[in-house]
Write a structure and sequence with these properties.
Blueprint lengths: L30 H7 L12 H28 L7 E7 L1 H4 L14 E7 L5 H6 L5 E4 L8 E15 L12 H6 L2 E3 L6 H8 L8 E3 L3 H9 L5 E4 H9 L4 E2 L5 E11 L4 H17 L12 E3 L9
Parallel strand pairs: 1-2, 1-3, 5-6
Antiparallel strand pairs: 3-9, 4-7, 4-8, 4-9, 9-10
Amino acid sequence: MAIIRAGDALASEAPDGGDVAGDPKYWGGDRAGALWSLGSVEGPIAGETPAYIAGEVLVRLAGQLALLEREAGALLRGPGDGGPVTVTVAVNADSLDSWFAAALTGLPAGVLVDLRRADQDRSADLLRDGTAMAAVTADGRAVQGCRVRPLGAMRYLAVAAPSARWFADGVDGATLAAAPQVAFDRHDALQATFARALGARGPAPVHHVPSQEAFVAVVRAGLGWGMVPSTAAQGLLDAGELAEVLPGRHLDVPLFWQHWKVEAPTLLDLTARVVAAAGAALQPAHVRGSVAGVVAGVGTGSAVG
């Protein structure tokens, strides 16, 4: 039996005469790749069937046409006539709780926003499936049919309660691997990224706390250490309610703005607002592309314990 894989020569049937498109035994776990070899779809996407891929494209196209239709209708009727234009945007929780709201100040009348909270590493998925028209994402690779703009980097500090004892003898890969972490949810890899960059290996115990306010409260209560945006952490550090795990070290996460590639005035106006708000709040980004972050700075010993 032959397995047809992406990149194989186009064929309507397998070498043994079987029906590639209709019989799963020829797909080798990758039906999308096999059908791509048959010319059925433009290219393979792991785990997605051609029907699913086509559905994403159609949903996104329908949304773009609907947005343009509403915008054109508003121009023809004049300001204030007709219904509002709703822009659906995927934004990570830390941006929502800090700088993103500034981008919405003075939003034109008749424009509504539907904000969807999504991890910065996964918000691009909402662009792909047509749910969101725009997204704040950590992925600098443009989603098909979208434009991408760098926004800057969100800086995170590794913090814990001053009374925490996990790092009393110093911070290294072993202590970071053993100390309990606090993560926003199961997609939050910031703590693991920071720990791995400093030599930690293997999974650490993790508390999952899907609320920004509760996240900080759990860290302050001494249940574990976590990565907190510097803007949210600084006041608590100054007050002595939190301490840096490794002073001088930080994690910068480059953020990008991706939006549908349509010349819709509402979307272009929102883009300008987001870029301006991010420029006023985020750190300059020194890294381009899709990365989880960069640990930088020089540690001088833990302030915890």
